[in-house]
Amino acid sequence: MPKSKILLKIFYAFLFIIIAIGCFSMTILAVYVYAIINEKNIDLDLDTITLNYTSIIYAEDSETGEYFELQRIHGRENRIWVNFDQISPHLINASIALEDKRFNKHQGVDWRRTAGAFFGMIGFTSSGTTTGGGSTITQQLVKNLTGEKEISIERKIKEIHTALEISKKFSKDEILEAYLNTIAFGNNTHGVEAAANLYFNKSASELGISEAAAIISITRLPSYYDPFKNPEENNKRRIHTINLMLEQGLINERQHQEAINEEPIFAEPEGLQKLNASNNWFVDYCLDSIVRDLMIQENITAAQAEAKLFRGGYRIFTTVDVQMQEYLESSFMVGSPAKPPVSNDEYPQGAFVILDHHGKILAMTGSNRGKNGDRLFNRATDAKRQPGSTLKPISAYLHAFQMNLIHWSLKLHDSPIIYKEHDQYPINHYPQNIGNITVGTAINRSTNTIPVKIIQEIGPLTAFNFLRDTLGFNALVEPCDIDLSPMALGGLSKGVSPLEITGAYQIFANGGYFTKPYAYTRVENAHGDIILQNDNGSTRVIDFETATIINKLLQDIVKSPYGTGTSAHMGHMPVAGKTGSSQGDRDQWFIGVTPYFVAGVWLGFDTPQSIIWEGFQYPPAVLWFNIMEPLHKDRGFLPKSFVESPNVVPFDYCIVSGALAGAFCATISPGWYNVAFMPGYCIEHRSVLD
After folding, report:
1. In 3D, which of 339, 353, 330, 380 has the Cα closest to residue 613?
2. DSSP 8-state assignment for residue 189
3. pLDDT tens profile 641-673
4. Domain edges within the chain
5. Which of 120, 258, 362, 439 is most deeply packed, by most CB within 10 A?
6. 90: closest CA among 267, 262, 231?
């Protein structure tokens, strides 16, 4: 056989072997790739991205009614979602120019770049080409969503496959929106909105060409191109990005020149201040409220609720009055001129709450010391203390008025009863029993014997159920608190919080309606869907007439000579309020309402001990006045009346008999009465001719 034929056969055999090996290798490679892409089913849904997004707290401007950003809260990353139509087109163009110039032409993978990256990796780069990654914007999005960034063939194959699948399911705009909301921009910041806020104190929609280029320039190496740390390197890359935008026809010559010459002005102090804001007492409570409500609504644990709150990109619309909150926290501090003196070695702790007439929390402070952390023990909401006489109007008197058992001037006997092992129960805070006194006098002087007799009449269970089920006192203990002392005198097993007792008094300011105190109006997720909303509205819990009469009685406590709350009297503004103290002055209270606000103050020690106060002025009433009186004046609130039922009318009554005064009654006093339950005229003082 000729040598040429032998060589030809060898060549064909060799070629066959090469082809066979190639086919076998391709089959093995195909099986390998198939196994990789099916090893873990990667199904990324851009509509349900669950990354670490920053939540934003908003407050309402009391003058304009518009909401403004108050504070941000986030977990490990500061990330704010923003929709595509709220992103500056310059940001979009800059990202395409710098990261993926054929983005609008390929289907998720730029095969030309991928091949170039591969050959560059093995050293076969042609002259004039640059080595670098072959990842498109879509592929980088996959990295951001999966967190898989290891350098391996297996990871790259998965990434390419997922990018192709994403391109089939989502539009270019949707992919860009997700990418620009997930990419890292340094300083623990992710997404263009958070980056624009941080670096320029602007929204992503407000950025010009130069600013957009400066931000997008950070993305490749955030620490190296950080404009705070390396402004020169950021500026070089910014110019490079602007040049690419011109080359690719994304901007014109005039825009290019203007952007090159415009040096961006970074706003580090403002941006970082928002990021590093610490919580005030109101914000602490608001966050706790949202966690609690999420747990109830979604049947999840506290840890799961906190994860949603701190990483869900929520928009929280609060009730706080920012100026009032700042004023309260400063004026309530120990050492403030507002503080009345006490004789204890250490000044007692305290809490203060201010609401509107329908449960909206405007300001609160959980301590009168400096706040040195977040989510601390908040005495305004977490402390349960004995309410003392502040409980009497809402546990005893309102029921008696509702049932027409008493009226303003009804005479009741101030005398003790036999109760359990006590034959002289209860003891008043004044030295001796007075005898027959009117209901008005009993409330005015905070007599103990009269509410005890009222609770005996209506039954402790009636008062207990009202406090627990209607007013939301959540620490009442059954059956221990279903008794005379707890319901008549406020000697509860555990106690109430300042927020609970203050919130209860709104019924005497608004005509008998109750709304559970709340710190936020609604919470939205990152896409603007409402996930929590306080829309319970106000519920009537006592009739208008009862609310009006008790309001008048509480005003008397503040303005009459014998009232226990005279230190809270403003003069120019009506005030209705009630003092209270627990046994041994371990807890001291004043809860007051004005035509504008409901406010309550508590003083006491965390480990209960007696408060030794100086002089004759009751400290909580003094403190309440010293804070609330300037607040009304500084806000320019003009004096006005409370809402009043037209069925409540004023009449003079005879002090001796308690009946309506006749012409011959020598000593009279004004009272207020429900027209449906009027006393008769005095029969003790009549003319001889009658």
Report:
1. 339
2. E
3. 999 999 999 999 999 999 999 999 999 999 999
4. 3-39, 77-275
5. 439
6. 262
